[in-house]
Design goal:
The chain is α/β, with parallel strands linked by helices. The chain folds into 2 domains: about 10-170, no CATH class; about 195-480, Nucleoside phosphorylase/phosphoribosyltransferase catalytic domain (Pyrimidine Nucleoside Phosphorylase, Chain A, domain 2). Helices cover about 45% and strands about 10% of the residues. It contains 22 helices and 7 strands. Strands 3-2-1-4-5-6-7 form a 7-stranded mixed β-sheet, with helices on both faces. Strand 4 (about 320-325), helix 18 (about 330-340) and strand 5 form a beta-alpha-beta unit. It is elongated.
Length: about 475
């Protein structure tokens, strides 16, 4: 059952406006520019009514929404004519200048009309970092890290937190900033070592799958049967998609989903298990506590990128990582984080729904401007040198000939659990193919299989023999799930 949102609202009309304006210098869409656009006067009126307490709690514009909206409007002053302020926005803000001047000081600061704004105790680092962010500027690592640590401490108002997160994303985080978002949640020096030779982390979007079967858990069971330890992590659900996640599938199977890092480590080190799932609730409770903020800022924060490459453990001899991405440009940033953490191999895949999962049909190939689903980029360290790969993976090259990438009849954790177990029992079909394809090809690109064909053969044998299912069942049992 979902935990209640601690914030009022969010107001749906204002969320629709945020979706348009809380984005980058090339994608923002001004309000009131043409018929059917959200009207900026209406947005301001809803904000004023919320500040006065004139709307029911469920319909109010939350402080987080206000923070994101006013920060976005400030940053858009630095944008070009196409994505900057429209004439309707200028007119609305001029019309309501008096009401805007009477808003709380934090909102006036975000709008740029309270330059002498005094931060509350605990907020100083966030306010200091916001000043350049609101001008469209980048920050140093230490500035971002300090602001995020203040936010994670719980001492910062929702308006300022939302403004900082959306501002960083609108300014398109650079490598130094994105590294700070990763380290603020779980620094590399806190990553414990495990007694396993090889260890691979899978990083999927925390907001889950809404259209395609998500095979991560079952790929982990296949890899465990091959002696390749695996770490999965995530949450039960996350906005905006609130799709099916690994945690949901495990819960549907009757598995325990609240393992501590120590308990997960024992499962991974157990040769009869060989993998584990850790919820963000357990390894980063302070970051998890801010999940509702994502609903109110409308757009994914930088953490939606960095949480996919979070390293929870380290293997004794070799460490690899696989992460999904959707927006072009983030593949280099994700791989850069993997290399900075000293991983031996890393892959980023533009998979289905922004995951790392290959679809069973390539579709239109990648070009210089657009990355196709199944685009793969990565590195591996071999004998002291760095080998790289970049290109599309075509399922037809390996005998998977589908006219469309199949979708399940039902998208739910319970349905995914049943489909995955059936595939691990050897039931042929698109789910079986998807698991084998993803396990085999990713292990090949990581350098753990000598060829793609060998990787596919290994994955199929692990399923057909029942060994992968045995590892999954052992995980459910030994994680302490039986009640």
């Amino acid at each position: 059952m979902s935990e209640p949102d601690p914030y009022p609202g969010p107001n749906e009309e204002v969320l629709a406006a945020q979706v348009r304006v809380c984005t980058g210098p090339h994608q923002s869409r001004p309000l009131g520019k043409k018929e059917g656009d959200p009207a900026p006067r209406r947005i301001l009126e809803l904000i004023f009514a919320s500040l006065e307490g004139a709307l029911p709690r469920a319909d109010r514009v939350s402080p987080a929404q206000m923070g994101a909206f006013f920060a976005a409007m400030s940053i858009r002053r630095t944008f070009g004519e196409r994505t900057g302020w429209s004439a309707a926005e200028v007119a609305a803000f001029d019309r309501y200048g008096d009401a805007l001047s009477k808003m709380p000081a934090d909102l006036r600061f975000l709008l740029g009309t309270a330059p002498d704004f005094a931060a509350r105790p605990g907020e100083a680092r966030v306010v200091a970092a916001l000043r350049p962010v609101l001008r469209g500027e980048h920050l140093r690592y230490e500035e971002v890290r300090g602001a995020l640590e203040a936010m994670l401490s719980g001492a910062v108002r929702p308006s300022l937190m939302a403004a900082f997160l959306i501002g960083q994303r609108m300014n398109i985080e650079d490598a130094e900033e994105i590294r700070a978002h990763l380290d603020a949640v779980l620094p590399s020096e806190q990553v414990p070592a495990l007694q396993v030779e090889t260890l691979t982390h899978f990083g999927q979007p925390f907001d889950g799958a809404a259209r395609f079967f998500r095979p991560t858990l079952f790929v982990a069971a296949v890899r465990a049967a091959l002696g390749r330890a695996t770490v999965l992590h995530g949450v039960a659900e996350m906005p905006p998609k609130r799709g099916v996640t690994e945690e949901g599938v495990l819960a549907a199977l009757g598995a325990r989903v609240d393992l501590s890092l120590a308990m997960a480590a024992r499962c991974i080190e157990d040769p009869a298990v060989g993998f584990a799932y850790v919820s963000q609730r357990e390894y980063a409770p302070r970051a998890y506590a801010l999940r509702h903020l994502r609903t109110h800022i409308a757009k994914r924060p930088p953490w939606a990128t960095t949480e996919k490459v979070q390293q929870l453990f380290a293997g004794a001899a070799w460490n690899g990582m696989i992460a999904g991405f959707y927006h072009a440009g983030y593949e280099d940033k994700l791989l850069g984080l993997m290399q900075e953490r000293g991983l031996d191999a890393g892959l980023v895949i533009k998979g289905e729904e922004g995951s790392s999962h290959y679809g069973l049909r390539l579709g239109k190939p990648s070009d210089a401007r657009r990355k196709a689903v199944n685009y793969t980029q990565g590195f591996r360290r071999v004998g002291g040198r760095l080998e790289t790969v970049a290109g599309d993976v075509d399922p037809t090259d390996y005998g998977f000939c589908y006219e469309q990438s199949p979708r399940p009849a039902e998208v739910s954790a319970r349905a995914f659990a049943a489909l995955g177990v059936a595939a691990l029992k050897g039931e042929q079909g698109p789910v079986y193919d998807r698991i084998a394809f993803n396990a085999g090809l990713t292990d090949y690109y990581l350098g753990l299989s000598m060829s793609a064909e060998e990787g596919l053969a290994e994955a199929r044998e692990a399923m057909d023999s029942g060994r992968a299912l045995a590892h999954l069942e052992c995980y459910i049992s030994r994680s302490g799930a039986s009640r």
